[in-house]
Structure formats: C-alpha cells, structure tokens
Amino acid sequence: MPFKKVKGDITKMKTDAVVNAANSQLLRGGGVCGAIFAAADSPKLQEECLRKAPCPPGQAVVTDAYGLEAKYIIHTVGPVWKGGGHGEEKVLRSAYRSALEAAAEKNCGSVAFPLISSGIYGYPREEALRTAEETIEDFLKDKDDMEVYLVLF
C-alpha cells in the first residue's frame, strides 16, 4: 500500500498517470490545471478534452499525456466548496475514487494527485487533505500494486 505525500511539481512526476484537477468542461484553467496544460502539448490535449467533455463532478476522464513524463492524464472534477453542507465531501471522495479506478483500468503502477478542490474551488485545505488521505488509503487496501503520490505545493 505505497502512499506518499511529496512536495513538488506534479507536471514533472515520473508516474504512469498524473491527475488533473479539472473543470466539468475539461477546458484549460488556472492552478494545477493550467500548469498541466502548459507543460503538455496544449492544443492536442485540449482537442482530446473537448471530445470527451463534459465530465460531471466526482467523475474522471482519461487522456494521453501529450509530452508529460506520464503516460496518461486523468482529469477529475472536484466540488466547489459551498460551506460543507452540500455534499462536497461525498463528491470529493468520488473524484479521488473515480481517478484511482481509471488508473487501475489503465494498469497504472503509479499515479500522482494534486490536492483536488483546495485551490480556486475553495475547499478548506486541511479537510481536503484528510479526505484525500482517507480515500486513497481505503482504495489501496485492496491494491498492493499501485503507488500513489499526493503532490503538495
């Protein structure tokens, strides 16, 4: 059950997949999303994203990595924080689980996550971190062949 928190640049992670904290339309955004698009071949990535959009909150979509060290980019949509009483934690858990399941379907041995929804979506960082850790650790109980990195900045 290898799970590690690391500091660094998610776009430079040498993993089979990197997870993008995406918006539902899978458009280039700011924060982690903007960094991933900037590091990849942005026009090709955007073209594939447009074909696969929309992606509802809590779900995930896989694209090629287009020049990143990874093989795949897994785009998952987290919740916008609205105070905590609107099912945000359930959607956040689903976003992590959907991305992990997508990585498993692609036979990824390693995957790097950002702290989903903790930037412009306003999810409180400590709560987002707790939810990420719990969801990833729970998933890995049955998967001893996947390394997961939570890349913090």
From TrEMBL:
InterPro entries: Macro_dom, Macro_dom-like. SMART domains: A1pp. It comes from the Bacteria. Residues 1-153 form the Macro domain. PROSITE patterns: MACRO. Signal peptide: none annotated. This is Macro domain-containing protein. It comes from Candidatus Allocopromorpha excrementigallinarum. The lineage of its organism: Bacteria, Bacillati, Bacillota, Clostridia, Eubacteriales.
